[in-house]
């Protein structure tokens, strides 16, 4: 029987697997597996969503009001901004615009699962570079660049490890790349980083022709359901993405909610402070179990990667956490680890208590 056959590079893709939200029995779990904001969504954004009118009409194809609001907040010319269906769309478009069969796309081991998917879907070759202590290794990445390299991805903070490259490392990596290689700095979790520690990505994008910075409203802004993100870079980069993005890619509701969310920076700051305090408390409690085979990777994001090396395995810990009503992320490539989204203080204390009981140790603060 004859039938359409998918391209071999598409057949090589392992589809993205989202974080679980239900247990083996189908019962809903508290979802600490997708890095959503436990404080929910800005009241201003919720109000904007409730006031959407004229759903029969198409949205603004250029997201003009949203781009203007982003530009005003971050001091960026709106002409150097493009909006997308989440930052995922923009990551895919960046590879599609600048790489294809015979080209290579570099990224660190243990980084965002979308990078190899975006690479393979346009026929390019993914090149995974060994990391060091769960962080991107700048020297190793530069050593892996070849004449075929067209795009380099770095997530900062990194997902799923939570590790962070400081400004000097980001600058060193960019400075070592050929000028015709696109450097994509994925800042999905950047708002969780203390402002004084920002990595200089916007300045690089403003000053150079080969830097694209992407951000999302799905994390600290609490708008994951609306699927809206944005990118900034040199005009020719923005032009390339505009040529191939969907013509009405950001819905009217997403645009309106994102504009309102940008105007509520008090909610953003409250979310950042909450995350920092609860993450620090949970991290200290995990560190107290170090003599029981439990370790934690220092995180600058809204999740923590916990390693299990003693009698308690990651899978056993995940099952026990699920039994307590929580979903966390167990990734095949990090088989000894669980990625746990930072929830409320009460939720994280309950999980910390449970893990201490499993490990047979004490971690009371």
Automatic annotation (TrEMBL):
In the Enzyme Commission scheme, what number(s) does this protein have? 2.6.1.9
Q: What are the Aminotransferase class I/classII large domain coordinates in residue numbering?
A: 28-353
Q: Which InterPro entries match?
A: Aminotransferase_I/II_large, HisP_aminotrans, HistidinolP_aminotransfase, PyrdxlP-dep_Trfase, PyrdxlP-dep_Trfase_major, PyrdxlP-dep_Trfase_small
Kindly state which keywords UniProt assigns to this record, in alphabetical order: Amino-acid biosynthesis, Aminotransferase, Histidine biosynthesis, Pyridoxal phosphate, Transferase
Note the superkingdom of the native organism: Bacteria
Residues recorded as bearing N6-(pyridoxal phosphate)lysine in the entry: 219
Cofactor needs? pyridoxal 5'-phosphate
Q: In which pathway does it act?
A: Amino-acid biosynthesis; L-histidine biosynthesis; L-histidine from 5-phospho-alpha-D-ribose 1-diphosphate: step 7/9
Q: Which GO terms describe its molecular function?
A: histidinol-phosphate transaminase activity
Describe the reaction catalysed, as an equation.
L-histidinol phosphate + 2-oxoglutarate = 3-(imidazol-4-yl)-2-oxopropyl phosphate + L-glutamate
**Endpoints of the signal sequence:** none
Subunit info here reads: Homodimer.
What family is this protein classified in?
A: Belongs to the class-II pyridoxal-phosphate-dependent aminotransferase family. Histidinol-phosphate aminotransferase subfamily.
What's the protein here called? Histidinol-phosphate aminotransferase
Gene encoding the protein: hisC
């Amino acid at each position: 029987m004859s039938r359409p056959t998918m391209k071999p590079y598409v057949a090589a893709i392992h589809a993205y697997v989202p974080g679980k939200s239900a247990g083996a029995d189908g019962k809903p779990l508290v979802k600490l597996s997708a890095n959503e904001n436990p404080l929910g969504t800005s009241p201003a954004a919720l109000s904007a969503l409730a006031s959407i009118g004229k759903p029969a009409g198409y949205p603004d194809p250029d997201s003009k009001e949203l781009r203007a609001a982003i530009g005003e907040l971050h001091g960026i010319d709106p002409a150097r901004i493009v909006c997308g269906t989440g930052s995922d769309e923009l990551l895919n478009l960046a590879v599609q615009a600048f790489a294809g069969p015979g080209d290579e796309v570099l990224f660190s081991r243990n980084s965002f699962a979308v990078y190899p998917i975006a690479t393979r879907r346009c026929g390019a070759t993914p090149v995974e570079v060994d990391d060091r202590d769960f962080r991107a290794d700048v020297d190793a990445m530069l050593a892996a660049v070849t004449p075929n390299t067209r795009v380099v991805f770095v997530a900062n903070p990194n997902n799923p490890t939570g590790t962070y490259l400081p400004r000097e490392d980001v600058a060193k990596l960019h400075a070592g790349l050929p000028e015709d290689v696109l450097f994509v700095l994925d800042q999905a979790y950047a708002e969780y980083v203390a402002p004084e520690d920002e990595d200089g990505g916007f300045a690089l994008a403003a000053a150079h022709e080969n830097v694209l910075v992407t951000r999302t409203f799905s994390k600290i802004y609490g708008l994951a359901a609306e699927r809206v993100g944005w990118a900034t870079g040199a005009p020719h980069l923005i032009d390339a993405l505009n040529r191939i993005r969907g013509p009405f890619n950001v819905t009217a509701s997403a645009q309106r909610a994102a504009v309102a969310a940008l105007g509520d920076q008090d909610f953003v700051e409250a979310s950042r402070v909450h995350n920092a305090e609860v993450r620090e408390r949970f991290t200290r409690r995990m560190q107290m179990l170090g003599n029981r085979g439990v370790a934690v990777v220092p995180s600058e994001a809204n999740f923590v990667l916990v390693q299990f090396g003693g009698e308690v395995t990651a899978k056993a810990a995940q099952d026990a956490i699920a039994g307590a009503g929580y979903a966390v992320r167990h990734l095949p490539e990090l088989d000894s680890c669980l990625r746990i989204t930072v929830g409320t203080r009460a939720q994280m204390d309950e999980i910390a208590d449970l893990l201490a009981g499993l490990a047979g140790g004490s971690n009371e603060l």
